[in-house]
Amino acid sequence: MKKQNLSQRLRSLLMSRAFRCGGYSALLTALIILLVLAVNHLAAILENRYSLTADFSFNALTVQSETTASVLKSLDKDVHVYYVHTNAGMTSSSLSEDDMRVLLGRYQTASSRLTWSEENIVQNPAFSEQFADLLTGKEITANCLVVRCEETGRVRVLDESDFVSRSYDMNTGSFQVTGYTVEKNLTEALLYVSRTEVPTLQVLTGHGELTTADLAHMTSFLSSNSYDVQRVSAAELNTQYPLLIACPQFDLTQDELELLLHFAQQGGTFLVLSRFSDPAELPRFGELFLYFGLRILPGLCVADAEDKGSYYNDSPAILAPYMQTVPELAKLTQDGRDFLLLTGARAFEILTERDSSIFAESLLKSGSAYLHSAYEESLDKAPDDPEGYFDLAVYARRYYDDNSSSRMIMVGNADLFCEQWMMENTYSPEFLLALLQTLNGENALDLHIVQKNAVRAPLRSASMALPAILSLLLPLLIFVLAVLILVPRRNL
């Protein structure tokens, strides 16, 4: 009886005039609210899973290039990226945490092989210890990315210096942020950790060359830029990788010379560093250089005091060489990244009478200068000092009948790549990578991904004309329409 009365009361309530007037509306409103919440939740899930967040920034900061899309599509090993932070936000010169999350989300969406997660090193300070045996370069700090491929066992750390690029401002004497390079460096890191083999620089030993300690800054920099560095003898050369000859003090044996010439004939490439104080007369090394149409010039290259732009800080022996507009350096010269310092430079000669199969060109050139004896305390020009414009870095290619070639680059200074101050305050790191890119060719991991601008380009007067006209015409048009509509109705 009670159940029947309850049923009758409910039926009466639903059929009553009061419920029909307000109840249906309330029920419909509740259903709509629930539907909107469900749709919003589903949209959030899809947005996170498929990285559907739109990027309306002027530089499309989180949007991938075609090169990155191609790399992600071809990724054949599982890679995990850890985003390490403190929840304190990033510096103003770098990406925000939200931008980084969106960027990583887009990478993950584009490849089933890539995953990412967040690590707060304040809450989990022991996180970096699991990579202690794998890291060879940078330390894991706040606001960095740790890229790891468990299959290859390689790890790459990207910090804020990898997220932005800086240009040297001669007026302020400091570097200014000009662009974002996080996409380029992250994509190259993915290639580095997932490749079975990575670019390697071989370092020749056995002739009093620069030691491991001497090359520490260069090695650290190369390790953080996807290169392995191996010290080898002349009998252990691999033609797949370039050979660094760093300031030898003693000559080759005849057997070693033949091994190096064979290495060249098989397509091997050379990067030679030579200081003005190094021996100029090492006959068998000299024979190797002549094989590429090159010769070392003895003495210290000293700038003419009148040529103020060719040396640094009133020191004519510290040269600021002119980077040549050649294809190998085009990327640097076009971007204005050509500021180098040679603290004591050796010059080279490109022989005019050389084998017709040799093509050689200058990479760095002095201003007006002279070659002075390295054994004199005074830098004053002596009557017999050669004068002119000297080649301080040269590049030679020797071609063979089967269309293969071997290459040699010689640089007349070692501090350019071995001194920390030079690596931090000039463009010598970019110059070194450009040289290795030239020598490595297809084996290099340097991808041509254009950086994103850090500063919006100023509006030009021509581009501002149309918006200005429209901003004036639109209110006027509304006023005219209002008049046309309201005047006929003024007596209504």
Which helices and strands appear, and what pairs or packs with what?
Layout: H1 2-15, H2 17-50, H3 66-74, E1 79-85, H4 97-110, E2 114-120, E3 144-149, E4 154-158, E5 164-169, E6 174-180, H5 182-194, E7 200-204, H6 216-223, E8 228-232, E9 243-246, H7 254-265, E10 269-273, H8 283-290, E11 294-303, E12 311-312, E13 315-319, E14 322-323, H9 330-334, E15 342-343, E16 345-350, E17 358-365, E18 369-372, E19 387-388, E20 391-399, E21 405-411, H10 415-418, H11 420-425, H12 428-440, E22 452-453, H13 461-486
Parallel strand pairs: 1-2, 7-8, 7-9, 9-10, 10-21
Antiparallel strand pairs: 1-3, 3-4, 5-6, 6-22, 11-16, 11-18, 12-13, 13-15, 14-17, 17-20, 18-19, 20-21
Helix pairs in contact: 7-8
Query: If helices are DSSP runs of H or I spanning 4 or more residues, what is the number of helices?
Result: 13
CATH topology of the largest domain: Rossmann fold
Structural class: alpha+beta
CATH architecture of the largest domain: 3-Layer(aba) Sandwich
**What portion of residues is helical?**
25-40%
Number of domains: 2
How confident overall, as mean pLDDT? 84
Q: What is the CA-CA span between the terminal residues?
A: 66 Å
- The coarse silhouette is elongated
